[in-house]
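Thread: quick sanity check before group meeting

JM: Hey all, I'm pulling together slides for Thursday and realized we never actually wrote out the predicted structure for the chain we discussed last week. Dropping the sequence here so it's in one place. If anyone has concerns about the input, flag it before I start.
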Amino acid sequence: MVEPLNKIAFSLGPLSVHWYGIILGTAALVGLFLAIQEGKRFNIIPDFFMDLLLVGVPSAIIGARLYFVAFKWDYYSQHPGEIIRVWEGGIAIYGALIGAIIGTSIYIRRKGYNFWRIADIAAPSLLAGQAIGRWGNFVNQEAHGGPVEESFLRNTLHLPDFIVNQMWIEGQFYHPTFLYESLWNLLGIGVLFLLRRQRFVRSGELFLGYFIWYSIGRFFIEGLRTDSLAVDAPGWVEGLMNALWSPMNGVFEPGTMDYGNVRISQLLAILFIIVAVVLIVVRRKTGAAQERYSDPIVSTKEMITIVEAPAAGTVKPVQTPEKPEAPKD
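JM (edit): ok, ran it. Output follows.
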């Protein structure tokens, strides 16, 4: 078989630049471009989204790594020096989302914007980043599914040689689950692009719709993987997860797990879907989502600036003093 792709793109002296980092960097830039383009509709300057990226990316990486390390603490407690080696893989998308939401929400509020309005603009960027970022897993030969025959990859899926060859891992071909999720996310971008042109979409609903779309795909794709983070859950939870995934049984065999009986990402996917749907309903009923996606976005900080400091060159009207009354006798 052909040798797997070299994980190192190039070296600068002692510094090795990994494909994983290049791909994640590309994902971030594509997401930034999409956000800037949509932000122009609302007269939001590009610098805002550039600064948002500078806050969101580190927050996402930290959250993703902490999430992964927490569920693999038995290993990392014995190998603490490996905790920072994010370029070798081992980051969790849901951890990245949690970290990014915490970091960016603080920044957004400091700038005087409504979090839901900015999150709506960023929703397609998140899917784009995940769609591209999954190719980092491809290079690292990780986040794959269970064993398959070569004929399945070539004749059923009709995959090109470079993907088939990279799916040959330690003497066995595997499901390219990275590709399934990447394609699902690309399709989701089109769905969000369509939704954000509809008048019925309220503030926050595009962002929540992103969670629903991504979680549906993640639930079913996660069931194929062999490296899932897992927990020992009650029997009824395991039965529920298996029942929900059962439509896939007629097409694919579920991936094996080294420990636990419920995949954490599947459990979180169901919870995120439920929470997102409930939030959409509650926010509409309580009036929290009165604004539509297409409504103008205004920073409260900008409003204060306009009131307190007129634009340069503006002539402030001068009040003419009233004519004094004649003194009375």
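AS: nice. Confidence is low (pLDDT under 50) at residues 304-309, 318-329. The radius of gyration is 25 Å.
JM: adding both to the slides.
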